[in-house]
Amino acid sequence: MMSDPPPVWADAWLRLLLPARDVDTVSGDLMEEYRENVRPTRSRLAADTWYVQQVSRFAWRIWAWGLVLAALYVSRMAYDWFVPTSNFAPRAEVTTLIMISTLLVVGASSTLRTRSIRAGVISTASALIVSAVLSAMALAFIYMNWRSPAMLAAIQGSGGLTEAFTMPIIMIIPGTIVGAIGATIAWFRSPSKPRSTD
């Protein structure tokens, strides 16, 4: 039991979240705490849950970026629902540019902090997943509390309710690609050594 490892995926995620200089120290300390104090006194599920909670504390940047992305998306949807239009092109252009810029920054900032392209990609994907969940919750709240015939007509005119809820999920893969571009640019422009393409 003392040698039981924590969830491999959680340890890998932790390593991607940390700056390169802190990876071995933080991961090692957390692993030691898990093996010596947590796992011997708890069930496997409880110990693993504890470990994931600890890792999640290091993921505040991902939660913050997920919140920013969700706020951008929900703001756009709410604007379409409350201020209907027949010409969505200007709104789409502005929203697309802001989202692309934000995703480039997510990938680049994570890569600069960790010196790893893979960290930039994983951070972007994780932030997009968080954003999709938060967006669904916020849109459901808006829909349930302000639903009216006018809003229903505006929703239908802007692509429908299904599109509003599925778009953040659909955007995970292309959004991650944009984040990967930002990560790659940051990696090549960063003078810091050592660097890793991992």
Question: How would you portray this structure in words?
Answer:
With 198 residues, this protein is mostly helical. The protein folds into 2 domains: 8-57, no CATH class; 60-189, no CATH class. Helices cover 79% and strands 0% of the residues. It is built from 9 helices and no strands. It has helices at 8-17, 23-38, 44-57, 60-82, 89-114, 117-146, 149-157, 161-170, 172-189. Helix 6 packs antiparallel against helix 8 (161-170). The protein is flat. The two termini are 31 Å apart. The mean pLDDT is 91.
Labels describing this entry:
single chain; mainly alpha
Oligomeric state? single chain
State the distance separating the first and last CA atoms: 31 Å
Which stretches are low in confidence, meaning pLDDT under 50 for 5 or more residues running?
none
Q: In the residues, how many domains can be counted?
A: 2
Short note summarizing the structure:
The protein is mainly alpha-helical and 198 residues long. The chain has helices at residues 8-17, 23-38, 44-57, 60-82, 89-114, 117-146, 149-157, 161-170, 172-189.
